[in-house]
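Open question from group meeting: does this chain pack into something compact, or does most of it stay loose? Before anyone orders reagents, we agreed to write out a predicted structure and look at it together. Recording both the input and the output here so the notebook holds the full record.
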Amino acid sequence: MEAFLTSTGLVALAEIGDKTQLLALLLAARFRKPWPIAWGIFAATLANHALAGGIGLLLARWLTDDVLRWVLGIGFLAMAAWMLIPDRLDDDAPSVRSRWGVFGTTCVVFFLAEMGDKTQVATVALAARFQDWLAVVAGTTLGMMIANAPAVWLGDRMAHRLPVRAIHWGAAALLAALGLWALLDW
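Structure tokens returned:
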């Protein structure tokens, strides 16, 4: 349960103000069909994080405990610093035509936007740390939905009212704590 709850909370916090949350807002404004967008986000996140969780488990098996402890500790500390850098939706973000429909467009764009994103890297690290693929993937996927589903339905009225900077600092503190925990108490 610890892996699931940690993964859910960490990703939900980390996703506030993230580029994929901005993407959810853009898709909601463009298509105005929240259910297919939400299901597309879910499907893309589940696929992306399932792969990331698998990579995390492979790293945990391939690396010795000592090396893994250092990689995870430094990785979590680096993600804490990365969390403090605000995300913007790139002008050169992948462009997918709507010929695939709302669901298909959302799946493809979200899957691609998550590649190398903080939450994907966190999923790799959490899976390596807890070595519980199902709990981590379920938790990170739920965390993404907690952050992105409201963005789809409530749009940017809600996003401007959240204390994004404070949330990012809180997520950075949580990541730093996980990093120190990995380094000091394996």
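Observations to bring back to the group:
The radius of gyration is 16 Å.
The mean pLDDT is 82.
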